[in-house]
Fold these 2 entries.
Entry 1:
Amino acid sequence: MNRRNSLRILALALMLALMLPGLPAASAEAELPPIDLSEEVHLVGYIPGDPSRENDEMMKVLNAKLKEDINTTIEFKFLNWGEFFEKYPLILASGEVFDFAYIASWADFHAHAARGAFADITEMVKAYAPDVYRIADQAVWSATSYHGKVYGIPHDGLDISTAYGFVYREDLRKKYGVQELVTLEDLGDYIRAIKKNNPEMATAARDATNNNLMLRYGLRNLTSWAFDYYGLVYDREDPDARLYSKYETPEYRDGIQLMADWKNEGFWDTSVMVGQDFVNEVDQHPFSQGLSAFFGGQTGDYSNTIDFIKDFGLDWEAGFHWVKYPSGHIDKGDVLNDGVSISATSKHPERTLMAMNLILTQPEYKWLIGFGIPEKHYVIGEDGFPTLPPGITPDNAPYNYFMHAFSWFLYDRDSTFPQRQEKDAADLLEEEMNALANAPTLYGFYLDTADLATELAALNDIWIEYEMPLTWGFINESVEADIANLIAKQKAAGIDKVREEAQKQIDAFLGK
Amino acid sequence: MTTQIAPRRKRKKMHKDRLLLNIIAYSFVALFAMFCLAPFLIMISGSLSAQSAIIVHGYTLWPRDFSTRAYDVLFAAPDVMLGAFSVSVIVTASGTVLSLLLCSMAAYALGRKNFGHRNKVAFVFYFTTLFNGGLVPYYIVMVNHYQMKNNPLALVLPGLVSVWNLLLLRNFMKNNIPDSLIESAKIDGAGEFTVYVRIAMPLMVPALMAIGFFTAITYWNDWFTPMLFIDQEQLVPLQYKLYKMLNTMNALAQIAARSKDFNMPKLDLPGETIKLAMAVVAAAPIMFLYSFIQKYFVKGVTIGAVKG
Amino acid sequence: MSKRVSLVHGHPAARSRASRLARTHSYSVFYAMVLPAFAVLFAFSYIPLFGIIVAFKDYNYRDGIWGSPWSGMKNFQFLFRSGKLGLLINNTLLYNIIFIIMGMVFAVLLAILVSEVRSKWFKKIAQSATFLPNFMSWVIISTIFYNMVHPRLGVINTLMKALGEAPVDVYTKTGIWYWLLPVLRIWKTAGFGSIIYFAAIMGIDQECYESAKLDGANVFQEIWHITLPMLKPTIVIVTLLNLGGILRGDFDMFYQIIGNNGLLFKSTDIIDTYVFRTLMRTNDIGMSSAAGFFQSLFCFVFILIVNLLVKRIEPDYALF
C-alpha cells in the first residue's frame, strides 16, 4: 500500500533499535515454576521483512538448541514489507491460529490489543519469561499494556532518542556567510542564500511525509508542545498535561505566516503537495546528487551522508540542523518501536514465552538471530567486530544482519555486541542528543481511540485537506481566516469530544 | 475466403469514400498508437539507464548512461525466476481454459431464449458483482474453512468465474448466433450441449479469444491473491515474486545503509530502474501471447461457412 | 418441448401447472450448464457475503464476525456526518459517467478504424501498441506524468516557456483535472477496451457487407448501417456493466496521480479516496465495510432502475 512510508518506519525502527542504551549484563538464571516439557511443541509466528537467503540454515541451528533447551521448535513467517500493512491486520483480525507476532506502536499495537488480538500475559511473563521481565525497564511495560493488562513484550530500553532534523550543505552555508543554523529563521536564511547562488537546487525538504516537517519541528524552538494529536498539544513540562489546540496560538499563526512568506519567495512550488521524486537510498537521494539543498531525516541519514561524501571523495561538508525545546531538551524516543506479543489464538502461550525469553536474552541465540551461523555467515574481524567472511559481499551475503525482525530488539544489546570505536560527527551528535533527551509528562501514554473512530476519521481528512496545504503556506484567503477555517472544521468534526476523552484518559494515566 | 478476394477488387476501384476513411483511419490509429508507445518506450529506456541518470536528468526516450544493472539484479538467480515463471504459466493456462469453459457454457445457457429462467439466473450471477463480504470475511472463509493457505488451488479457483466476462459472452452468443441456426440443428436431433460445442463455440471464436485474453491477463497480473494465501516460495507466481523482490531490495538497501555496527559496504540497488524493468519483464510474455491471438482478430467469421 | 406439453390433457389449470413442470424439466439441461459456474460463485462470493454484517458490528477479533456486538448504524456515521458525502457522490458519479461515455466512444472508434486499416503489419503493430499503457501500473504512470507536468522542470512547461507562454501548474488548478484524468484514463484503457468491440466486429457476418456493397452503399454508410448497429448490443452491455459500478471509483488511479494533495480535493476527491484517507489511521474494519456496503447499495438500486428502463425499451438488452 504505502511502501515508502513503511520503509521509512522500518528505518526508524532500525535507527532506534541501534541506539539502545547499555544496561547491566544479565545473569541468566531463571526460576521456572514446574512446567511439563515432555510434549514437543512447534511454534509459529509472524514478523515483518524478508528472510536472508540462508535463514533456514540458521533456523536449523537455532531449533536444535531450542529443542534441547525446552523441547520446542519455532518457525518465523516473514511478511514482506510491501504487504505488511495489508496482511498483518488481516491475520490478526481473522482469528487464524498462530503463536506470536511482532508488535510496534507504528503497527497499531494498541488498536489490535484493544480488539483482542493478543493474549494477556500479565502474570505469565513473570513466570515463563523471567529474564525478559527482569531486564526490561519496569516503565516500558506500560507501553504494552491496555486497560492495566500486559499484552506484549516490549524491547528492553527506555531511552532511544534522536531528534528529527535536516541534513544540509555545511560547506555552502559557510561559503555564503550564513550564520549557524539554530532557528527556523536561520534555515530560511540558508535557503535564501542557496536560492540566490545555486538556483538549480531544490529548496524544499519533504521526505517521509508530505506534511511540512520544517515547520513542525522548527516551531519546537519556540514552544513546548507535546502530544500533537490533530493539533491538540500540552506543554511538555506541564505536570497536569492540560490539552489545548495549537492552532489557536500566536506561535502557530506566525509559523504559518513565515511559511507563506517562504512560499511566496519561491522556496518551493506546488510539487511539494504531490509527494513524488523522493528516493530512499541516501546515495541516490537528490541531495547526494547535488540537486537539493537539504533533506529531512535523522542522525542516521546524516551519518550516511558523511560516509557518502567520504566514499566518493566529494569536497562537500554536511551539517545537521535540529532544534531543541526552549528547556534545552529533546523528546525521548517511542517506547514501543519493537516488541512481540503472544497471539490470543495460541495453544501454547507458556512455551512461546519461554522461547522468547531464550531468544531475546541468551547470547548464543542472540548472535544466531543477529549475525547467523559463526564462521559460515560471519567472522570476528581484527577490530573485534563481526564482519562478513572473506569473499562475501553484502550483495550476495547468505545471511544479512538485521534482516530478522527480532534482531531489532534483542535484549542487552550493548553488552552483547561489540561497540564501534571510531566515531564520526553523526555519532557524536547522537551522543549529544541522547544526553539531552528527557521524558515529557505523558511519556508512555497511548490514546485509546476505540470510542472516537467517527471523529478521528473526519479529523484525519481535515488534517490532510486543510492543515497540510496551510503548513506549506498555501493560503486561500488570509493566514488568520484560513486558520479560523481549520479550527471551525475541526470543531464541526468533534475535536472537543476528542479533547475531553483524551483528557479523561490522561488524568487516569497520571493517577488523578 | 471473401476477405482474400475483397482487397484486390477494392484496390482496382478505390472509391473516394474508402480513400477518405483510410486517411482518417491510418492517421488516427497511428497518432494514438504513438501516444501509447512513447511512454512505454520511456519506461523501457528508463529500465536500461543508470539510476543516477534518471534522478539527475529525469526520464528520456533514449537511455542515458546505458546500464543493464536493473535486469542483472532481477535475473541474478535465473532458476528462481524460472520457477516463478512456470507457476504463473500453469496458473494462467489452467485458469484461463477452465474459466472459458465454465463461462461460455453458462453464457450459452443464459443466452438461449428457450431458457425461461435466464434473467433470474443472470441476476443471481450479477448480484455478486454488486455486493461482497469484504476482505476479512473472505480471508477467514478461505483460510479457516477452505484450508486455502499455501494451496495452489487458491490461485486458480476464486478467479474462475468473472461475471463480466460471462455476461459479455452471453451477449455475443445472443447476437452473433442466429436462432434459426440453433433451431435447425435441434430439428436435426442435436441436444443443447451438442449445439453449444459444435455450433456456438466455433462461431464465438473471436469473442472467446478476446475474453480468454482478458482472463489470462487477470490471472497473469494477479499478485494480490498469492499475497493473501501463499507464503511457500515454490508456489509464488512471477508478478508476486517481482513485487516481493523489489520490496526486499529496498529494505535491504535501507538495512545495509544503517547497520553501522556490522562492517558492511554499501549496496548498489537501483530501486527506481528495477521498478521499471519489472514492468517490462511482466508485460513481455503477455505481448507475446497476444501476437498469437491476434490472427483471430484479423479475419472475420462467416456464418455461412459453419452452416455449410 | 411442445410435444411433451401436448401430451397433457384435461383441466386448463392442471394443464398449465403440468406445463410449468414440464418446462422446468426441460430447463434442466440449461441449469446443468450453468451449475459449474454457479458453484464457483457460491463458494467464493456468496459464502463470504455473510461478512456484510461486519458493517453493523463493533468488530473484535476475539468474538469474531458472529459474536461481536451489534453497533447499529454507528459505522456509517463517518460518511453521513462528514458533510462531504454530497461532493463525494457527485465527483464519483461525474468521473464515472465521463469515463464510461468517453471510454466507449474512443474504444468503438478505435476498433472500427483499426478494422478498416488494410495493411496487416500496420494493423498488428498499431493495435498492440494501443494496449501497452494497460501494462503500466498507475505508480509508474504517475512518475512519468509528474515528470512531464512538473511546474518547473516538466517537459510540457519547458515547451510552454520556449513558446513564450506562461507555464501551467496543474497541481493547483482544480478545474483542469476534469480533463486530465479522463485523458489519462482513456489513454490507458481505450486500446484494451477496444478489443471487445474488435471481437464483435470480427463476429459480424461478412455476407452483410457483401450484400450492402451490391446495394451500392458507401463505406461510411456501411459503418453507420451495419457495423454500428451490430455493435449496439456490445456497447449496451459494456455500458450496463460499467453502470453497475457507478459509485465505485478507480482508487489506484486517483490515489497515485493526486495523492494527498488537499489543494485539489474539490475536483478530485471520490468516495474511495476519502474512505482510504479517513480510515488509514484507525484501520477500522467495521467502518470500511460500512462504506463498501453503502456503495454496493447505491449501485444496486441504480442498476435495478437502469435495468428496468432498458427492459421497457428493449427487453433483449437487459442485464437480467
Entry 2:
Amino acid sequence: MAYPEKYKYTREHEWIEVAGSVGTVGITDYAQNSLGDIVFVDAPKVGTKVEKGSAFGSVESVKAVSDLYSPVTGTVTGVNEELATSPEKINTDAHSSWIIKVELSDPSELDALLSAEEYEKFTAEETGK
Amino acid sequence: MATTDGFVGTMRKVTAHLTQNEGLSFEKSSPGKKGYRLAPLDVPEVDAAALLGGAVRDDVGALPELSEIEIIRHFTRLSTWNYAIDLGMYPLGSCTMKYNPRVNELVSRLEGIAEAHPYQPESLSQGALEIVKLLQDCLIEITGMDAITLQPAAGAHGEFTGILLARAYHQSKGNARKTVIIPDSAHGTNPATAASCGYQVINLKSNAQGGVDVAALAQIVNEDTAAMMLTNPSTIGVFENEIHKIADVLHDKGALLYMDGANMNALVGKTRPGDFGVDVMHLNLHKTFSTPHGGGGPGSGPVACKKILEPFLPSPVVAQGEDGLLHWNYDRPKSVGRVRMLYGNFGMFVRALAYTLANGPDGLRQTTEDAVLNANYIRKKLEDVYELPYTTPSMHEVVFSDKRQVKNGVKTGDIAKRLIDYGFHPYTTSFPLIVPGALMIEPTESESREELDLFVDAMRQIAREVEENPQVVITAPHATRISRLDETGAARKPVLRWKGPPEDAVEVDTPAKEW
Amino acid sequence: MRYLPKSDAERAAMLREIGASSIDDLFTAIPEEYRLTRDLKVPRQMGESEIIDYFKAAAAKNANGYTSFLGAGMYRHYRPVVIDSLVQRGEFLTSYTPYQAEITQGTLQAIFEFQTMICELTGMDIANASMYDGSTGAAEAVMMAVRITGRDGVLVARTMHPEYREVMHTYAQHQGHDAREVGYGQDGRIDLAALEKAVTDEIACVLVQSPNFFGVIEDIPEIAEIAHKKGALLIVSVAEAVSLGIVQPPVEADIVSMEAQSFGVALSYGGPYCGVLAAKEKYLRQMPGRLVGETKDTEGRRGFVLTLSTREQHIRREKATSNICTNQALVALMTTIFLTVYGKQGMRDLAVQNLAKAKYAADTLGAQGKLLFAGTPRFHEFVLQTDEDPEQLSARLLESKIIGGLALRKWYPELGNATLWCATELTTRKQIDAAASVLADAPVAAEAR
C-alpha cells in the first residue's frame, strides 16, 4: 500500500497528518501488517498530555502488544471511538483509521519526522534485515 | 483429513475414535432435577428473610440443575477431550510434565490430613507440622541452601517472595537498590515479578551460546543492582558453566543471585545451587517434585535461601519448641510479611514429600540422569532434520528452531499442531524469545525408549511432510474434535460466560422427532 | 526406581547412540568443583506401603474424631463423592494449562462453566479462571483498582480476615500504596462514619469482606455509595462462598474477590484453595490471570480458548497486570462440580441449613456467655465472649474432644475473651449441645477477671 505523501512518519511506524495546529495520528500499513490481526486498541483519554517519542497507548494482536509512540508533543483532543468496537479497521485500512488527534504544542517537531519516501525506504531496510 | 497429493505420514501411536458430544451444563439443566440430598435438619427451621432482612437473596442465578448420573457423564465426557500425561508423552518444554504418582493422591486424602483445619491447635497438628518440617529439610538438602519457606502458592509467587527477600535484605543495609538484571532468555514471570516488587528491569542480552555474557554483566552490575534473576539450566536447557563467575560479579557489588528453579529437575542429586553461589531460589513442586499440573494448577513455589536472608522469610516459620513439639513461630520482626494466608499449599507438600520418599537419594539422582539422557537422545535423533540454534550441551530439554521449515512456509506452531495428529501433546512453541521460531522439547524422565522413538518418528515424518506436502501441516490438526479456533474473534469480541440460549435459537431436530 | 521406565541395558544403549561413554558425559557442563559426588541426605527409597504407613502415622498425630467449631475463612462443608472421583481422572489431573485448545477442550469448557457460575453467584459480569486463594486474590484486586483509578490510597476494613489484610499489606508496601485500616462499630460492621471521613479523592478502593471475619454481613449498598461518591472503587471479598446461596450478592461492588474453598475443597491444613476474581465488564482489560472465551473453529463449531492473554506476563513481561502464571485449575474444577451437584435449588437449601445450624448454635452457646454483635444479620459464624479465658476454655473442650471457637485476642485484643465459632450443615445439634454443656461447666472464673 502506498504511503500518503501528505503524512509524516516515525521510525516507530506511526503516521501523522497535520491540519492547522491539530495532528491526527495512526499506525502505518507496515505496522498493522507485522502485528497481524489487531484485537484491541488502548488509546488515552481526551485531555491527556502526550510527549514526542513517548508511549501514549498500545495496539494488541492475539499474541503481541505494541506500544504506540507519539510523533509530537501536545494534548489529546480526540479519540477514534470506533476502534473500541472495531479494531480490525486498522487492518483493513491503516492509513485512514486514525487513533488520536493531538493539539500540537511545538509544530517544529514535525521537521524531524520522515516523509513518505523516507519512511518507505526505512521500512525496506527493516525488512531487508 | 482432506487428502492432498504428496507425502502424508503414518500415525503409529494413535487411532482415531469417537468422543461424546456434550453441551454446557447450563444447556442440559432443567428445573427440579437434583444431584444432592441434604441430611434432615436437626435444629429448628429458620426464616431466612427474618434473619437477614434486606440482605436476603431471592434468586441464586442460573446454576444448572442436573442429576448425579448426568453430572458424572458431563465431566467424564469433557475429560475425554483432554490430552494428559497419563495418555502419553507431554514434551511441553519448561513445564516438566512428568508422571504424577498415584500414591501421592492417596496419602493427601487421608482423613487426618485432608480434614485438618489450619487453625486447629498445634498440639493436634503435629503430623502436619512434621510433614512440613521433613519436606523443608529434604528441600534444603537438595538445593544446598540454609533456610526455606513453603508459603508461596506457585512458582511466580515464589519469585515474588524471593525478590521481596532480596529487597528486605538490601533495605536492612539502608538501601533497597533500584534494579534487577534479567537475561533476555528469561521466562516472562521474571520481569513481571521484578516490576511488581518495585524494581526496574535491566535486560541482559545473551551471548552467542545463549548463556550469560559475564563480561557484559560485569559492565552493568553496580551499586543499584539488587539482584540478578537467572534460570539455570537456562531456558534453552544449557547449564551456565560460568555460574560461579556470575555469582562473584554480583556479590562483588553487593548484589544477590536469584535462581529461577523451574529447571531444577536437571540438577537434583548432581549439583546444588547453594554450592555454586545462589543466594535465593524458588522451586516448583508441580515440576520437579511431581505434584499434578491439574490443567493449570494448583502449584506450589517454596523459596530457599542462604542464612543472610533467613530473618526476612515470610511469617510464620516452623520451629521446635522447648516442649519438644513443633510450632508456628510468628515472632519474626524482620519478616517481609505474609505472601499468602496460612502456611501454603499443604496438599502439595504432602505429594512432594511422598515423591521424595518414593525416590530416596538414588532415585532422585537416577531421575535427573534419565531426564537428561532422554533430552539428549531426542536431540541426537532430530538434529539432522531440525535446526539446532545453540550447539552447547543440552541438559533436560532441547531447543530447536523452525528455520529449515519456514522456507516451506511452515512455522513452529504448525508443526506443533501437526504433532497432535500423531498422538502427542505439542512441545512449547515460540519460547524462549531468543530463539526465533523455537521448538522447546522437554521429554522428562518419565518416557520409555519406545515412547521417545515414536516421538522421534512423528517429528521426522512431519519434517518430511513439510518438505513434500506442507499444506497438510499448515492446516493441522485434522484428527481432533475441533479444528483451529478463531482466536482473533475470541479476543475482539470476548464471550467469557454463558448468557442463556440465543434469543433467535431455533429448535434443532432431535432423534425423538424422527419417530 | 519404579517410576522410571528404563532398564540399565536400555540406558546403556541410548548412551551409545548419543555417543556418550557414560551418563557423566552429559553433565560435564557443570564445573567439576560443584558436582555432587555423594548421596543426598534424604530418607532412603521407600516401598509404597511404607509411604502410606508414614503418612498414616503423621495423620494420626493430627486431630482425629474431634468435633470442630472452627471456621474463620476455612470451612468444613460436605464434599460430594463425585468430585473426587471426577478430578482423579488422569485427563484432568495430569493435563496442563490449555495452551493447545484442540486437545484441552475439556479443561477449557469446564473453566468457561466456572466463569459463568461465578458471575451468576457474585452478580458480576466477568470472572477469571481463578487465583491462588482468597487472600492473594484480594491483594490482586487492590492492585487492579489502583491501575484503574490511577490513585494509590487503599482503605481496608478491620473486619476483614486479619491474614488477608497482612497479605494485602505485603503486596501494597512495594507498590507504594498507602493502605490504611478502618475500624468497626458496635454492630460488628465497618464504621461507616469513619469510612466516610477516610474516603477522599486519593482513595483508589475500599476493601471489605462480607460476611466479615466476625460472620456479620456488611451493609454493601451503603459502603458502595460512600466509596463511589468520591470515585473510589468497592472491592468485596467473600471468604465464605456458601453464603451466596442465601445472602444478597455484592452487585454494587466493582470487583469481587472470593475464596471458593467451601465449594467442595478439602481443608487440607490450609491449601490448595481457590481464589476467584470477578468484576464489572468495563474492567476486563485490567483483570489479572487467565480467561477462557468462547469462539468457533474453522468449521463453525463452538470451542473455547484462552483469550486476552496480552494482559499476561508471558507477553507483556514487566508491564503485565500481574506476574501470576498458574491458576488453581483443578481446584476450580472441584468447585465447578460442587456447584453443578447443588445447582440453583441446592445452593439455597445448603445455605439455609447453615443459617439454621448457626442460629441454633449461637442461641445455645450464647446462653453460656455474651453473644457479640447479636443484633446484626450474620451467616454461620458468631463471636462469643466468655468470662473464662479462651485457652482454658479450649483445654476443657478438648477433653470432650471438641475444638471450640477460635480465640480472637491475637488480632482483636479489645474484644477480651472472645472466640469465633462456626456451624455448618455438618454440625449436629448433639455436638452443639455437648459444647454448650462444657461451657456451662465453667469453673468460677475469679482468676480470669
